[in-house]
Design brief:
The complex is a heterotrimer of chains A (206), B (534) and C (94). With 206 residues, chain A is an all-alpha fold. Chain A is built from seven helices and no strands. The radius of gyration of chain B is 23 Å and the shape is globular. Classes of the chains: A mainly alpha (206), B mainly alpha (534), C mainly alpha (94).
């Protein structure tokens, strides 16, 4: 095989291996949240009514809006891949920025949700919390833990996409070599996936 | 185009470069493997020391040299260090890193910088774990299993221990990720899956466990930390939490973790036996597939650690059944190893001695595992010394001995030198005898009813305890001999040629010690790995 | 090694996928208004899984990658599912 051909094959294998590695990492995230989903499902099974009561305290509309926001952010990051494939760096960067902005809007919504709960004293350690029925306490514990951990991942994902933008602008990501962007997008889709499950489990039980 | 310049071995340092930095921040899998080896060796010695102290206390009923609080702290940190700092990273981090890429004909692992990150995460986690030792009455005293609710309430350094284990988990996860990718994508031309060495198969199966099981304990430990720090009481009965759910989550990882410990060890047995029996391994395909089978079934048996905790009857029956199932592929391996020896030309060099001892110890450990897996008998032996004996036979007599075997086997490859064979043999016999004198009485005293994790015991358990403690002294003498021999050999041992054991796998076909890129030219593979003809 | 066919999703394909996801989200919210008793969780999870599958297959490109990736995803889900199932067996039968 000629040197160029070998180089192309090796480069391609490098990309495949890199993407493969990213998927493996996504599996670990799945199992990480999976442990929490397991706890949630057992406790929900044991405390159906209390969980329903807890769920009705949450604002379904903010939850639905956040779902739409994340789904749209998945769209924008997916389209940014299309853009880089078409060698349209400007469009790729715009779409990546849109993704990050949507992430920030999501976080702002979360902030409002949480601070509202804070104002009514509905968080661990307060007297209000202590007087909740046991199952409802568990519901809110899980709510804070799971949406909190998810929020941390939103932040990480947004930062990661920031690095992607930098690399597109630097020319390190090109239409020939965009696996870093693909991997960043994969991570972002995972953040979206987790929320797809969190939304109905926390906001849609009454 | 071939290079005319001398290819340095990976041990040699470049001109003008800071030696310490070039070792601590090297992405060379071989250097990373060696640093893991030295750190793990140190932590092993620390944990052995704690075991030694425990056995001193147990030599007679009543208080001997310490009070109960210190004893509880010692058995906890002994377990935490042995399990999270030695046995789980153990063979994959040391010998997987040192040898896997070479054995499959690659220049390095798939993600060398990630590999370096794994190492540093391990170092940070280990440092944090060691901070739990700052204060005899603050040693975590929950047992390495950190069961709720006591782990929430204990006024000791549980937080540091739990966070350290969480951090160390990431090192394990990333190593697993790296090895899976390496084995999928970096095998040399011609090396199909079923031409890989069995150590590679073992590491592959192990890596999937590292990848999928570890995050579960990670999040569980995070929940414990959250409960301690923020009052988030997921396992707090007063909040409706269920402590048994903690146990489920903990053992969902910690059972597969024992396969992280033993599968690579079995892989090493499969590597060493053919070389020193001069025969190809019997049933190569079965050995490869059983590694995968053990990993898979191993995900499904965790409940057998909880038979007396309060699970339902049907759950216990199902877990017991699945537990018996996982014994089958393990037994197939033992059968195949023994058959490999038949009509072989046995050479009792130190690696072979340890591997044969592995088979002996693992059989005892495995058979006693059946007692534990059967519901009726487990009720009797759970939380007794029978269990302590069982897991030391498989983890120490199994994985530990295999670790020593690997050290003796690949030592000449790594250092280009040989240790003193006579003293290695002496060390082996003392270790083997001491090990069995230390742990075998535990089956007896456990059957008689002596509980584990107890500072004190009834007078009728006295005699076996004396025997055990004396066994621990013999064992330690053997370990000291082994370590002194290995360390001296690494620095002053006589130099050896490329392939002193006449092995056929790829690591023996390249320079000793290996050059940084492992091969001057990536080899092409045509044969299966153990085609011994002499 | 054969060269993979670098299939790319067009802008409009991505938008169609997004539209389906939005519709499914709307359905999820609407369905939650009915009291389905024991089926509530199952239906919610089913809809969420439909959305997740679509995100994985199209946005995350699984449909166009080597089959190996799908096998790994399914294996991981199988293991995760076993954890949930075996734990539940304990609680269902207590």
């Amino acid at each position: 095989m000629s040197d160029t051909a070998t180089h192309i094959v090796e480069h391609h294998l490098d990309e495949q291996a890199s993407k493969f590695g990213m998927w493996l990492f996504l599996f670990t995230e799945l199992l990480l949240f999976g442990g929490l989903f397991l706890v949630y499902s057992i406790y929900r099974y044991l405390n159906q009514d209390d969980f329903a009561r807890g769920g009705s305290e949450l604002d379904m509309y903010i939850g639905a809006i956040n779902t739409v926001i994340l789904l749209t952010s998945s769209l924008s990051v997916a389209m940014s891949i299309t853009a880089i494939q078409k060698n349209n760096k400007r469009m790729a960067v715009i779409l990546l920025w849109i993704t990050i902005v949507l992430a920030l809007v999501f976080l702002v919504n979360k902030y409002f949700e949480w601070s509202h709960k804070y104002h009514v004293g509905l968080y661990p350690g307060t007297e209000t919390f202590r007087t909740l029925p046991a199952g409802e306490g568990l519901f809110f514990l899980l709510y804070y833990f799971m949406t909190g951990l998810h929020g941390v991942h939103v932040i990480i994902g947004a930062i990661l996409l920031g690095f992607v933008i930098e690399r597109v602008l630097d020319g390190k990501i090109t239409s020939e070599n965009y696996v870093f962007q693909e991997n960043g997008a994969l991570y972002w889709h995972l953040v979206d996936l987790i929320w797809i499950y969190l939304f109905p489990l926390f906001y849609l039980i009454h | 185009m071939s290079e005319v310049t001398h290819h340095k071995s990976f041990l040699e340092n470049s001109e003008g470069k800071n030696v310490v930095l070039s070792w601590l921040f090297s992405t060379d899998h071989k250097r990373i493997g060696l640093i893991y080896l030295y750190l793990i060796g140190i932590f092993f010695i620390v944990a052995v020391f704690f075991g030694f102290l425990m056995r001193l206390e147990l030599i007679a009923p009543g208080k001997d040299i310490m009070d109960p609080q210190l004893y509880n702290g010692l058995f906890t940190v002994h377990g935490v260090i042995m399990i999270f700092l030695f046995i789980i990273p153990g063979i994959p981090a040391v010998f997987g890193n040192l040898m896997l890429p070479i054995m499959i004909g690659a220049k390095d692992v798939a993600f060398p910088r990630l590999n370096l990150l794994s190492l540093w995460i391990y170092i940070i986690g280990a440092m944090l774990a060691l901070t739990t030792l700052m204060g005899a009455d603050k040693l975590p005293d929950t047992g390495w299993t950190f069961y709720a609710p006591y782990s929430i309430k204990s006024n000791t350094y549980v937080m540091q221990a739990v966070l350290a284990a969480f951090i160390l988990g990431f090192s394990s996860i990333l190593t697993g990720l790296n090895f899976i990718t390496t084995i999928h994508w970096l095998r040399a031309p011609g090396m199909s899956w079923f031409k890989m060495p069995l150590f590679s198969w073992a590491l592959y199966a192990t890596a999937w466990i590292q990848l999928l099981a570890t995050p579960v304990v990670g999040i569980t430990l995070l929940m414990i930390a959250a409960e301690r720090y923020l009052g988030i009481g997921l396992f707090d009965p007063s909040l409706g939490g269920d402590p048994i759910l903690y146990q489920h989550l903990f053992w969902i990882y910690s059972h597969p973790a024992v396969y992280i410990m033993v599968l690579p060890a079995m892989g090493i047995v499969s590597e060493i036996l053919p070389v020193f029996a001069r025969r190809r391994i019997f049933g190569y395909n079965a050995m490869a597939v059983t590694s995968l089978a053990i990993a898979f079934i191993g995900y499904l048996v965790w409940g057998h650690h909880m038979f007396t905790s309060g699970m339902s009857g049907p759950a216990r029956i199902i877990f017991s059944f699945l537990t018996f199932l996982v014994a089958v592929p393990s037994a197939i391996k033992v059968f195949n190893w023994v058959t490999t020896l038949y009509k072989g030309s046995i050479d009792l060099k130190p690696p072979m001695l340890y591997v044969l001892a592995f088979i002996f110890n693992f059989m005892i450990g495995g058979l006693t595992g059946l007692v534990n897996g059967a519901l009726a008998t487990d009720v009797h032996v759970h939380d007794t010394y029978f269990i302590v004996g069982h897991f030391h036979y498989v983890m120490f007599g199994g994985t530990g001995f295999s670790f020593f075997a690997a050290m003796y086997y690949w030592f000449p490859k790594i250092y280009g030198r040989m240790y003193d064979i006579k003293w290695a043999n002496i060390g082996f016999w003392i270790i083997f005898v001491g090990f069995n004198i230390l742990y075998f009485p535990m089956f007896i005293v456990g059957m008689m009813g002596m509980p584990r994790r107890y500072y004190d015991y009834l007078p009728e358990f006295h005699w076996p305890n004396i025997v055990s403690t004396v066994g621990s002294w013999i064992l330690i003498v053997g370990i000291v001999i082994m370590l002194v021999n290995i360390i001296r050999g690494s620095m002053k041992g006589p130099k050896v040629g490329q392939n002193p054991w006449r092995g056929l796998t790829l690591e023996w076909q390249t320079q000793t010690p290996p050059i940084t890129e492992n091969f001057e030219q990536i080899p092409s593979v045509t044969e299966r790995p153990y085609e011994y003809k002499d | 090694m054969k060269q993979e066919n670098e299939h790319s999703m067009s802008y409009s394909a991505n938008i169609w996928v997004w539209a389906i996801l939005i519709v499914l989200t709307f359905v999820t919210v609407k369905v939650a208004e009915f009291d389905l008793q024991n089926l509530t969780v199952a239906v919610a999870l089913l809809l969420a899984s439909a959305k997740a599958t679509i995100v994985a297959m199209y946005f995350m490109h699984l449909k166009f990658e080597s089959k190996l990736f799908i096998v790994m995803v399914l294996f991981t889900l199988l293991i995760f599912g076993s954890f949930i199932l075996l734990t539940f067996i304990d609680y269902w039968t207590r």
